[in-house]
Amino acid sequence: MEKEESFAAPPPMAELGNYKGVMLCNRPTAGDTLKPEASVRPFRSAIPATVGEPLGLHRKRPEAVPGEVKSRGPSAALRRHCRWVKELQQQVAQDAAFAERSERDRELKQQRLKEVFQKQREAIRLLKLGDARAEELTSALNPKAKLKPLWALTEGEREDQEEQAAGELINFAEALDYDEYIHDLEFRECLLAITDRAKKLQREQQSFKESLLKEFQADEGDEAPTCADACRHAPPRLLLPSTCIKVCKRRLLRRFAAICGANWRGRLAGGLRRRRQQRESAEREERASAASLGRVPRKVQ
Fold this sequence. Notes:
single chain; mainly alpha; 63% helix
């Protein structure tokens, strides 16, 4: 029994401690390396948390749904910023339009004041010369005073106004410089356009008369004087020559007879007679109905 105890295995080294006085802590054993890791890892700022983990076991990030708009976070702030930028653009555009409108109104006001001052200076000059009228002085000194309408004018004021307008027209005609207007390029272009239009109308009228006369001659089969010869000997007060008028009248009557038939005069008279009878019968019916209702009958057209 004593032999068995003497040859027994020595105790484990972890239980010995620092039996030689050198080790200050227990030596690590195989059991210590197999201990499970603690649930809470120590904080290590320079080492990422995924170090030491097997590859391919990371959780997949959730995919963003297309069209989904966040109500909070950076997206909401970005939307608010975009809305503010749009409002700022609209405000800047409104301010620019207001400034432009104010500048235009100021220029128009300056132009009106300039015209008013010019009229006042002209009225003062005429007053010094003794040629100014009461109406001119009133309109020059009080620009807001409006002229009276025609219905508010007396007979004398209306005559004075007509005489003044006639005098202004005569003065304009007397002071008109024809050479200035004739040498004006725009006036010359307008005059040339009017001349071309008049010549074109004259050619169209002449060709119409010639074609009409040729048609009548072809239908009649006889030789008739041409429209140019007839117009040459016709009096100037007539637009068409007398020969052309007679030929046109005869041809038109023949055309009308060919369209309406041989008895076109009787048909025309019969149509007028029927129209008159219908009108008379309508008047009689209207008169009878008015008498029954006791009101004034109206005349049937």
